[in-house]
Automatic annotation (TrEMBL):
This is Uncharacterized conserved protein YbbC, DUF1343 family. It comes from Pedobacter africanus. InterPro entries: NamZ (IPR008302), NamZ_C (IPR048503), NamZ_N (IPR048502). Pfam families: NamZ_C, NamZ_N. One of its GO terms (molecular function) is peptidoglycan beta-N-acetylmuramidase activity. It comes from the Bacteria. Residues 256-407 form the Peptidoglycan beta-N-acetylmuramidase NamZ C-terminal domain. Residues 1-21 form the signal peptide.
Length: 408
């Protein structure tokens, strides 16, 4: 019976290997460019490493092998998953931004689902008991304020403290071409939406970022990591995400505009939350008469229950058809929209949302990682001068980043 089981598992492994090779060959095209293949889809490179081990999997709805959930796929291939750890938005990806996510038992598989966005962000010693190997497979979008890299650091810390190895199934960064924005350099700007001394967009994949965390001393002790690299990938390549990485990044347009439009959280401007067009539109009631485009944010369970300007008509910019290739050509976050809407806003004293009590740090500052940009916008500093002020920090960070890159 055991021989039959081993033969069946070997057959599945060979089938997956053949399928991956055929997939790359069929999609090489006349240009000679091969298809991007995620680390997760290259099962031939890691299944044997997982066999016989009790696996803890850090995953969400973006964790797929082919078109199936990584959990379901690995279970069908005979891998023993004993626990699943979920980040912000939960394992199923259906919790609103910032919502506390509770641990539970998965109804389909009976596997315990442990939330890393609830009572604890770092997996505890008790939660890691009974696990031989941790696996991290979550899609990121390349921004300091997108919390998956926070989860990565917390998982690496927990693994290092409890002598657990972490296998990372790497995925492309859809914004991997851009390293831009002010670099966070002061601890006072750390928050749940930013804990790393990087620019707003870091231009690294999860695998590269893990090497950066180890190499730059973010952990008291390095985490033992093994990375299954993305095949046929470089940072300049376009990558359309096969699954929405979070509820409010529900289109490719939103994913590409996210680095630029997420800056507006912490201002009086609604960035599309409370609509089915998040991160592709901008507006506020106070801009009535200055812009023709309008929309009304409402409460949408699983996306945004309490959006800015809920149930009030907003006026502003419609960027759903904006040519995102313009961002790639310039390799920059779009700063002009922030400057434009600040100038158009009638009550400038209320444009930036207050932050921590008794501190001169606004909610906007926490997202940006510094208070300098807010002060520059208020003072009317030109975009060219603002960008010039970023360059020393960006130059230093690019040199650091270069040490950890896995791809051109």
């Amino acid at each position: 019976m055991r021989a039959v089981t081993l033969f069946f598992l070997a057959f599945l492994l060979i089938s997956h290997t053949k399928s991956t090779a055929q997939k790359a060959a069929l999609n090489s095209g006349k240009s000679g460019k091969k298809e991007i293949i995620t680390g997760a889809d290259q099962t031939e490179k890691y299944l044997s490493y997982l066999k016989g081990k009790r696996i803890g999997l850090v995953a969400n709805q973006s964790s797929i092998i082919g078109k199936k959930s990584s959990v379901d796929s690995l279970l069908s291939l005979g891998i023993k998953i004993v626990k699943v750890f979920g980040p912000e938005h939960g394992f199923r990806g259906n919790a609103s931004n910032g919502a506390v996510v509770n641990s539970e038992i998965d109804a389909k598989t009976g596997i315990p689902i442990i939330s890393l966005y609830g009572r604890n962000e770092k997996p505890t010693k008790q939660q890691l008991e009974g696990i031989d190997l941790m696996v991290f497979d979550i899609q990121d979008v390349g921004c300091r304020y997108y919390t998956n890299i926070n989860t990565l650091e917390h998982v690496m810390t927990g693994c290092a403290e409890n002598n657990k190895e972490l296998l990372i199934l790497d995925r492309p960064n859809p914004n991997g071409y851009v390293v831009d924005g002010p670099v966070m350099t002061e601890d006072r700007f750390k928050s749940a939406i930013g804990i790393h001394y990087t620019p707003m967009t870091h231009g690294m994949t999860i695998g590269e970022f893990a090497q950066y965390l180890n190499g730059e001393g973010y952990l008291k002790q390095p985490c033992k990591i093994k990375i299954i690299k993305v095949a046929n990938y470089n940072h300049d390549m376009p990558y359309v995400l096969p699954v929405n990485p979070s509820p409010n990044l529900n289109t490719q347009q939103a994913v590409m505009l996210f680095p630029s439009l997420c800056m507006f959280e912490g201002t009086a401007i609604n960035e599309g939350r409370g609509t089915y067009m998040p991160f592709t539109i901008l507006g506020a009631p106070a801009l009535k008469g200055k812009y023709a485009f309008s929309y009304k944010p409402v409460s949408i369970p699983g996306m945004s229950e309490r959006p800015n300007h809920k149930d009030t008509v907003c006026y502003g910019l419609d960027l759903r058809n904006y040519d995102i290739n313009q961002l790639k050509k310039r390799r920059q976050i779009n700063l002009s929209w922030l400057i434009e809407l600040y100038k158009a806003y009638p009550d400038k004293a209320r444009f930036f949302t207050p932050g921590r009590a008794n501190q001169d740090i606004s909610a906007f500052d926490l997202r940006i990682g510094t208070d300098q940009l807010r002060k520059q916008i208020i003072a009317g500093v030109s975009e060219a001068e603002i960008r010039k002020s970023w360059e020393p920090g960006l130059k230093k960070f690019r040199a650091i980043r270069a040490k950890y890159l896995l791809y051109p």
